[in-house]
Amino acid sequence: MKNDGTDHTAVPAGHDGRTRHAVARLLLEQGPVTAASVAEQLGLSPTAVRRHIDALVADGEAISREAPRRGQRGRGRPAKLFLLTEQGRARFGHAYDDLAVAALRFLAEQGGEEAVRAFAERRVSAFVDQHRAAILAQADSAERAKALAVALTREGYAASARHVGAGEQLCQHLCPVAHVAAEFPQLCETETAAFADLLGTHVQRLATIARGDAVCTTHIPNTPRITVGPADDLTSDGGEPA
After folding, report:
1. pLDDT in tens, 132-158
2. SS3 234
3. Where in the numbering of this chain does the HTH marR-type domain appear (predicted)?
4. What's this model's pTM, rounded to 2 decimal places?
5. CA-CA 20 to 30 A from 50: which of 193, 211, 234, 240?
6. Alpha carbon distances (Å) from 210 to 85, 89, 151, 173, 220
7. Which residues of the chain have pLDDT under 70?
8. Is 141 within 8 Å of 222 (Cβ atoms)?
9. What percent of the chain has pLDDT over 70?
């Protein structure tokens, strides 16, 4: 077949919406990330992916930043990394935000801050109880962090975990309650404390989407295996956001 110079890996116009959503999803889950990496994972050409990313940037749904240089500075422009803005994350849904905020405001008026905190603790406790056994069955802190990321992803948080320095870094790329937590930080605070209790170690919340960061990031220090049963009561000093 004669090469006419056309980018045949580009997706047909009728599929642009689904492809752009897939591109945005990778920016959400892995950002900051390069266009080349997105193209490789989706099986598209870099040109096709850049077209979608440029559209997301033009619509205010994504932004770019320069990738940090490693080693000796070379020639040419530095690589660009892309990630979603708050507007871009909104395409993945903030269902019932207004209702949730209104309900918590009413709860705060009727029962004060402690009532809001009690609600937040009960909410995260339901999540922890459901996934505790699977997470604590893992051999070490690295595996437990990965298991926690899997559990959070199943709950809609698009989470991942990786080794960083002397511990593990848990990243939640999507927060279904970010808009609510922006007004009621008790949701983030009780979540951090629950992670510490579940893992049996002090954890540190480094960033949150609710505060305007791109990702909710939690540092989990390396710890030896903890042998406990699902019903054991783990205690910790918790962890307050940085």
Report:
1. 999 999 989 899 999 999 999 988 888
2. coil
3. 9-115
4. 0.61
5. 211
6. 12, 12, 20, 12, 20
7. 1-15, 69-78, 93-96, 224-242
8. yes
9. 80
Q: Which whole-number Å values give the CA distances from 70 to 17, 73, 78, 87, 110, in the listed order?
A: 36, 8, 11, 31, 55
Tokens of 179: 């808009």
Using CA of residue 113, residue 172, residue 31, residue 49, what is the dihedral sign? negative
**Backbone dihedral angles phi then psi of residue 227, each to the nearest 5 degrees:** -100, 105
- Position 17 scores a pLDDT of 79
Element (H, E) at 46: helix 46-58
Q: What SS3 class is residue 125?
A: helix
Please give the domain boundaries of the chain with CATH numbers for all domains: 16-68+79-91 (1.10.10.10), 95-221 (3.90.1520.10)
